[in-house]
Amino acid sequence: MLKINDIHKSFGNNEILKGVDLSIDKGDVVVILGPSGSGKTTLLRCINFLEKADSGQAGFGDLKVNLHGASKRDIHTIRQKTAFVFQNYNLFNNKTALENVTEGLIVGRRVPKADAIGIGKKALDKVGLSDKYDSYPSQLSGGQQQRVGIARAVALNPDIILFDEPTSALDPELVGEVLTVMKNIAKEGTTMLVVTHEMSFAKDVANRVIFMDGGVVVEEGSPHDIFVSPKEERTKKFLKRVLPEDYTFYI
Amino acid sequence: MSEGLNYTFLIDTFFIALSGVPITLLVTIVALLIALPLGFLLALTRINQVPVLNWFSRIYVSFVRGTPIIIQIFIVYASVPLILSLFFEKYNININVYNINPIWYAFIVFSFSTTAILIEVFRSALSTVNKGQLEAAQSVGLSNFQAYRRIVIPQALVVALPNICTATVNLIKATSLGYAMSLQEITLKAKVAANVGYNYVEAYIDIFLVYIILCSLVEYGFKIYEKRLRRYKYVSA
Ligand SMILES: Nc1ncnc2c1ncn2[C@@H]1O[C@H](COP(=O)(O)OP(=O)(O)OP(=O)(O)O)[C@@H](O)[C@H]1O
Ligand SMILES: [Mg+2]
């Protein structure tokens, strides 16, 4: 459903993405792992045109676009098919939780206001925030804000939701509530591409794990492949560092 | 010289000074109507580093801020008629440039100087809005224009409003320099009235009072508006 081909991106002389390919099917939950600076965020941002790639193609079903020279219209179309959940939430500070969720529907997609409010409330209910419709982001905890962020993405009913380390800005005790919400929407069949350091999420929810390092995909496979029998030396090293000593993988 | 204050004159002149308020307000409003959008657009060119325009706004700001308004008035008041008369002569247009109402010069000078101030006000206000706000708006499918209008500008405006208020009050006060080009505003009207019987102290008190009332009302108006815009920040403290 989403195919990325040979994406390159440099900042100045610093080549961050050195030809990444990616292929995601409907209903996939793909987790990207990798050390800091390996280009995971940059990859997601290029897919959503928040960053302009130097070269590369994206295919969305029948739609093929050049990631470097896409027209405004193509960019708009792709953004209609994707949603982004940001590391630091990026909720609209001047809008209530409900308005945050309906903004993209009403203004971006011209959904009638009454319908949008219905969809928005349902999305907020789904993430457990039925009592926070009218709260502003400044009145919500980090975990609640990120759940609004997820509701905002879900409400758009996109083909795929891109998550960039959705829990890494949260206090440890708030991580669980966000992961639970993510697990729930994964169960409903939402296609997700998730950058995370939460190994438990990768292990329990993902059906495919990609390990990136130095701007390339080093290895990919099922969670079992990657966690139990990684082939590449770099993958092994990375896992050794991020997994607890006595970590064992059950399946 | 009379002994003590001439109260009748004080009261009469108060109303004369007051009759200059419409001109003062007209100049203020026209200057703001030009400077607000222009200052905002030029601030955007600075934030987004638009080539050429970005440089232009920078030089413009340092030029206007580095010179006293009274000098800007002298320059415009002296040079614009010269340029216009050359222009009119060349194209055989029969207008006497020295009959032009000084209010046009006031519009020019005060729009110029206020634009420069507002460029800086908007630039700093826009830079307080996290880039993530714009990106989130784009990611949910808003165009750049929609993102600015609905998400970025409302947040920047809350930050900018106290400074816009200051700029407006400064502008009102600065229009008193309009007397240098015979603009019929508060200061000039009261001073002219004072010329007759040398009642300058009374006239200055009146001028003082009129500006204080005017500026307080404007500040009060801004406060109310700010409160409305700040709703979403109520509990953030
Ligand atoms: N706008 C930018 N300008 C210059 N360099 C950038 C920019 N954005 C990212 N980089 C650089 O690109 C590299 C990869 O960044 P990226 O954020 O994609 O890594 P990441 O894999 O997401 O890392 P992390 O796990 O820390 O989030 C980093 O070295 C970063 O400094
Ligand atoms: Mg990152």
From TrEMBL, chain A:
Keywords on this record? Answer: ATP-binding, Cell membrane, Membrane, Nucleotide-binding, Transport
What is the superkingdom listed in this entry's lineage? Answer: Bacteria
MF-aspect GO terms: ABC-type amino acid transporter activity; ATP binding; ATP hydrolysis activity
Q: Which CDD domains match?
A: ABC_HisP_GlnQ (cd03262)
Note whether Nuclease occurs among the keywords.
no
Any single Pfam family the record assigns to this protein: ABC_tran
Q: Which residues form the signal peptide?
A: none
Topology in the lipid bilayer is annotated as: Peripheral membrane protein
Q: What Gene Ontology terms describe where this protein resides (cellular component)?
A: plasma membrane
Give the Gene3D superfamilies listed for this entry: P-loop containing nucleotide triphosphate hydrolases
- UniProt subcellular location: Cell membrane
Q: For this UniProt entry, what is the primary localization, expressed as one broad class?
A: membrane
Taking every annotated instance into account, which residue ranges of this chain make up the domain ABC transporter?
2-239
Q: What is this protein called?
A: Amino acid ABC transporter ATP-binding protein, PAAT family
- Naturally occurring in which organism (per UniProt): Psychrobacillus psychrotolerans
Automatic annotation (TrEMBL), chain B:
Gene3D superfamilies membership: MetI-like
Single GO cellular component term: ATP-binding cassette (ABC) transporter complex
> Where are its TM segments located?
20-45, 66-88, 103-122, 151-172, 203-222
The way it spans or sits in the membrane comes to:
Multi-pass membrane protein
* ABC transmembrane type-1 domain mapped to chain residues: 21-219
Location(s) in or outside the cell: Cell membrane
Q: Which GO terms describe its biological process?
A: amino acid transport
Lineage, top-rank taxon, reads Bacteria
Keywords from the UniProt entry: Amino-acid transport, Cell membrane, Membrane, Transmembrane, Transmembrane helix, Transport
An example of a GO molecular function for this protein is:
transmembrane transporter activity
Stored Pfam families: BPD_transp_1 (PF00528)
Tell me the protein family, please: Belongs to the binding-protein-dependent transport system permease family.
The protein, known as: Amino acid ABC transporter membrane protein 2, PAAT family
Q: Which organism is it from?
A: Psychrobacillus psychrotolerans
Give the lineage.
Bacteria, Bacillati, Bacillota, Bacilli, Bacillales
